[in-house]
């Protein structure tokens, strides 16, 4: 879980997120299923409380995991889509909807 913390922490952690993902993928023995479970839990329980930088990092992580074809990432995509509020036209909600749509259209 220490390798996952930079994705849900504000930037002063001094660790580049792409390098953290690379390290995480290298040391994972379970196909990142532990990380997927933790990520899903955070998305369901704490997404609205996360700072914008953390949200951006989680969307970036989702994009990379989808690109790499991580087994089980579809559940996290569904959880992200549940965070899109219907009828909410705030910039944060539109940003999330556009990013999730971009991720899914890239991987048709």
UniProtKB/TrEMBL annotation:
InterPro entries for this protein: INTS3, INTS3_N
Ranges for domain Integrator complex subunit 3 N-terminal: 19-108
GO terms for cellular component: cytoplasm
Superkingdom assignment: Eukaryota
Transmembrane portions of the chain: none
Name of the molecule in the record: Integrator complex subunit 3-like
Organism: Notechis scutatus (mainland tiger snake)
């Amino acid at each position: 879980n220490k390798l996952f913390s930079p994705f849900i922490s504000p930037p002063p952690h001094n660790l580049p997120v792409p390098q953290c993902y690379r390290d995480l993928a290298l040391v994972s023995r379970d196909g990142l299923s532990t990380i997927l479970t933790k990520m899903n839990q955070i998305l369901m329980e704490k997404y609205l409380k996360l700072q914008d930088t953390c949200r951006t990092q989680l969307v970036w992580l989702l994009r990379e995991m989808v690109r790499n074809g991580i087994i089980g990432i579809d559940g996290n995509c569904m959880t992200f889509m549940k965070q899109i509020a219907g009828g909410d036209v705030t910039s944060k909600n539109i940003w999330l909807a556009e990013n999730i749509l971009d991720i899914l259209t890239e991987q048709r």
